[in-house]
Amino acid sequence: QKEVEQDPGPLSVPEGAIVSLNCTYSNSAFQYFMWYRQYSRKGPELLMYTYSSGNKEDGRFTAQVDKSSKYISLFIRDSQPSDSATYLCAMRRYSSASKIIFGSGTRLSIRP
Amino acid sequence: SQTIHQWPATLVQPVGSPLSLECTVEGTSNPNLYWYRQAAGRGLQLLFYSVGIGQISSEVPQNLSASRPQDRQFILSSKKLLLSDSGFYLCAWLPGQPNTEAFFGQGTRLTVV
Q1: Distance between CA atoms of A63 and A72, rounded to whole angstroms?
Q2: What is d(CA B30, CA B52) in angstroms, rounded to the nearest whole number?
Q3: What residues of A are in contact with residue B96 (Cβ under 8 Å)?
Q4: What would the pLDDT profile of A70-106 be if each residue is shown by its tens digit?
Q5: Where are the beta strands (DSSP E) in chain A?
Q6: Contact across the interface for B99 and A51, Cβ inside 8 Å
Q7: Residues B83-110: pLDDT tens digits?
Q8: Which positions 58-97 of A are in contact with B (Cβ < 8 Å)?
Q9: Is A39 on the interface with B (CB under 8 A)?
Q10: Sign of CA dihedral B49, B50, B51, B56
C-alpha cells in the first residue's frame, strides 16, 4: 500500500463550480500537510500548508485535514480556467530530517 | 528571501552519456535538500535527500547518484544514462525545522535518446 493515495483524475468541471480534491494516507506519523499546484512543465508551487485537524482558508482555497480518518482535502470555490493544473498533496512527519511524501497528483481542468 | 536555482531547464542526452544537474539555494543555511523525479502524468518520486554536507540518503536503487559538496549545493549525477532516466527532475528545499513547507526549483526536463 502506498503511503499517500490520490485519485489521478482527470477531473473536469465548469467554471464557477466548487472543486474537491482528496488524499488519504496510511502513516499516522504524518503531521504536516501541503497542497501544491503544478502547471505543465513547471515546478510545483505551494498553495496551502497546515498541521492541525480542521479547516484552513486562503482566498478561494480551503484545506481540510481529518487526522482521525487520515484524510485531507482541498476545496476550490468559484473555480477559474486559470486553476487548470495538476494538484499534488504532500505530507511529512514531525522531524527536521523527515522526507516529504507526495501523492500522484490530480489533473484538474476548468471548462470556460 | 530564499530562492532556489536549478539548471539546465531542458537537456537532451544520448544513452551512455554522463549527467550532472545542479541545484543551489540562496538566502538560507543548512537547508534540507531533495531530488525528485516526475514521469509524464505521474507523481513525484523521491530519489535522494540530504540534511547536511556530505550526507546523502538514497530512496530507490537506480542509475543515479547525488552529492552535496557545499551547504547550499546539491548535485544529481549519472555516469551512464539509460533511456529510463528520462523525466522531469525537481530539486526542493526546506529549512531544517520540522514545521515548515518545501519549495521547488523550476525543474529540468531530461530526454535520453
Answers
A1: 7
A2: 6
A3: 96-97
A4: 999 999 999 999 999 999 999 988 776 678 889 989 9
A5: 4-6, 11-14, 19-25, 30-38, 45-50, 54-58, 61-66, 71-76, 85-93, 101-102, 106-111
A6: yes
A7: 999 999 999 987 766 556 778 899 999 9
A8: 88, 90, 93-97
A9: no
A10: positive
